[in-house]
Amino acid sequence: MYLVKSYQGREWISGVFTDLKEVMEYQARVIVQGHDVGCVMEELDLPFPLFIVEQEVYHVEDQEPERTFRFMQALDLAMLMTSDGCTAEPVPSPCTIYKINGPWQPPHDQAGLDYMGGMDHMHLTENNLEDVAGWVAQ
């Protein structure tokens, strides 16, 4: 699977593909549409469903956080949720978990832009751990 990360001051996932040719066509659309973003492709050796764990990490107080992404399968995510990972007490910055069941990209004319909110996702906090665990298992 191929993952495309886009960035413009911050980073986001802008596409998930199974075919390298589709990645190249997608990146060409970003350029043609004139979206002022950079794109980086990453190859992942993981099957669908893919889970993306997004957290905001603060390195220096009062500065913008860094968005971090971890990619994993359901079993790895279940282990993370039962260890320190996203659920340390108290949750300093709740994480967002995205579930990608197959190839995904934003609407055709929005290539490269941040549409992560349109992905199937849940916000994990210490109060909804069981709900998120049930969603991951589906």
Condensed summary:
With 138 residues, the chain is of the alpha+beta class. The protein has one domain (2-137).
| Total count of domains | 1
Quote the distance from N terminus to C terminus.
21 Å
* Structural class by helix and strand composition: alpha+beta
Q: Spans with pLDDT under 50 lasting ≥5 residues?
A: 88-92
Radius of gyration: 16 Å
**Helical run tally:** 3
Shape: globular
- Summed over residues and divided by their number, the pLDDT gives a mean of 85
Tell me about the biggest sheet? 4 strands, antiparallel
Helical proportion, percent range = 10-25%
Write the H/E string, N to C.
Answer: EEHEEEHEEH
- Please count the beta strands (DSSP E, at least 2 residues each): 7
Strand content: 25-35%
Order the strands across the largest sheet as they lie in space: 5-4-6-7
What would your notes on this structure say?
It is a single chain. With 138 residues, this protein is α+β, with helices and mostly antiparallel strands. It has one domain (2-137). The chain is built from 3 helices and 7 strands; from the N terminus they run E-E-H-E-E-E-H-E-E-H. It has helices at 20-32, 74-82, 129-137; strands at 2-7, 11-17, 38-43, 50-57, 66-72, 95-100, 120-124. A hairpin with an 8-residue loop joins strand 4 and strand 5 (66-72). It is globular, with a radius of gyration of 16 Å.
